[in-house]
Structure formats: structure tokens, C-alpha cells
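(Protein data)
===
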Amino acid sequence: MASDTIAIPLSRLKIAAFFGGSLLFLTLAIGLIVIATGQNGLAAVLCYGAGGVGASIAALMLFLFSRKLFDPSPGLVIDAEGILDNASPIGAMGRISWQQITRITVVRIYSPIDTRSVPARPVIIVGVRHPQRYLEVKNPLERFIRRGNYNWFGSPVRISSAMLGTTFAKLEELLQTSFSKYRGDTASPEPKSQDADVGFPGERNPAPRFLIVLAAAAILAIAGVLVVPSAIIYLPHPFFWAAAFLAGFAWWTFSSERRRIKKPHPKTLRPSRLAVESVLFGIAVSVAVFLVGGSKLDFEFALIGAAFGVAAGLSQFASPFMGYDFLWNTRLFSGPALFFALLSMQLCFLMGLEAQFGI
């Protein structure tokens, strides 16, 4: 390499930690599937669903992290030509020339739960002149991630020190120094650092009072049972508590996302049409679930199908007010989050009815 080339290696220790976390996650997911074999009705569906999704995600992460663990290439190279990004297991940008780079800024991703005790996670955003060039990739997962970065940060290029053998402060210093050295005054003026209301659901505000009050009530209920064990028969089943938390999370996601977006989806201009479309979509989803059940269709399965339909219909109606279309969007994780929260809330509520009242 040339004398002015800076090569930052991948951190095997950090990657091994991610690999171990994915392995633990896979073990827990398989455990849920094993538990599901001894369950019936709603509990079996929930365990099979959560275990299957978790195992699939964990297996994908294990594959990606194992490739990085044995990758001999540097994680990031900075030279006179530009930046060579190889830091991420998904969505690494490759070579980016200095002529394409317009700015280098630091964005802090704040916790959606507690911004006071949980520190913000900083990432480096590299602004580029033609972002569409970096969005046109064949790998659908990489395309989703890059489009997500573009929607959240205004650029598809995001660099983190999570897998690099250096600290974030040192990484920022190297990038800013090299940017000033090779671009100089020709670059567009941008602030060196900035705070941003990003993350999921994307706000720096503490958790809503509803969730705080609910958590306090749960703690008091647990304390009461510890003092007077017989009082447990008068308290709501834990499934009801879980349903309440999920309902609060769903509302929090919707309200905070509405405040964050600058422009709602055009579908919000015709709410009546959107409502009819959402009802029909929910019915279609329920019918699809009923068809999957086939000859096994019974009352419990019908309730599950109805829960799927209600969650799908509400998500279809609420998503445009959050700035995107539920069916056609590039949000890999935040897009279906409301649907899964609503579905899990209903399933927990139904399991609570079954467990506490035998309904």
C-alpha cells in the first residue's frame, strides 16, 4: 500500500462477540420451537412463529458473521482515491471516491426506550452526490438496508466502528482529516456533528407515560404477590400485561412516527377510500389464514385468522399516516413492526382469556 494509505483492520474479537450473540439467539429460537411441540392452540402458534422467525434471522446472522470472521481484507481503507468500505457484513459500500463525497457527519441514534440512562449510539454518515447509484444493487437485503439508511439519514452510506479495530472517536478523526486533506474547500459546507431524531421509533423523548405507569403497576403487582401470595388469583394474567405493553408500544410507534415525518403518504388525502381498502385487505388476510388451516379450522384457528386480519387491516390504514404504504415500502424492520405489535397484542390477549377464564 502507498505511504498515505490508512488501513483499519476488522476486529476479530468484536465479530466473535456478534457471532456468539447470534448463536445464543439461535439456541433460544430452537428452544421455542421445542417448547411449541408440547403446546396446543394459540400458544403453539405463537411459539412456532416466534421460534421460526428467530431461527431464520439467527441463521442468517451466523452465516454473515462467520464470513466476516475469516475475511482477511481490511475493514476500511482510506487513501488518496477515496474510501473502501468493507466493515459491514451486509451493505458494505465498497469503493467511494472523494469526488463523490459531499460531507461526513456524525449522527447519534437515541434509544427509543430511555434516552437518559442509555447512551446514544453514534454512526458516521457519508453524503454522496448520486445516492441512487448506491441504491441500485442486486442483493435485495443490501438494497433494503441502503434504502433504509437513505430514508433515515439522507444518504445510503453509513459507517460504524462496531466491527473495526479502532474506536469511534479515532475513526471520525481519520475520516474528517482525510476529507479535509483530499477535498479541501471544494466540498459543500456541512456541520461536523449533528444530533438526529433517528432510531426506532425515532424520537429522543423518554418512553410515554402510559408505559411507565404500566411498568410501575406491574412492579407493584409483583411486590404484592410476594407479600401476599394468595392475591395472585385476583390479578390479571401475565398475558394481559403483555398485551397492554404491546398496545402501548403500538400506539407509541404510531404517534411518534407521525410527529417525525415531514409529509404523510398521499393515501391520507382520501381516508374513506383508505378505510375501505384496509377493511378489504384485512378480510383477504383472514381468508388466506383460514385457507392455510384447511381441515384443521376450528374456533381457536378462526380467532387466530381474525387476529391476523385485524392487525393487517389496522396496519394498512395507519401506515400512510406514518409516511409509507404498508404493502409497498422499503422499510425492512420498521415497516412491519406495527403489524407484529398489533398481532402479538391480540394473541397475548386471547391467550390471557384462555389461561385465566378458560374461554
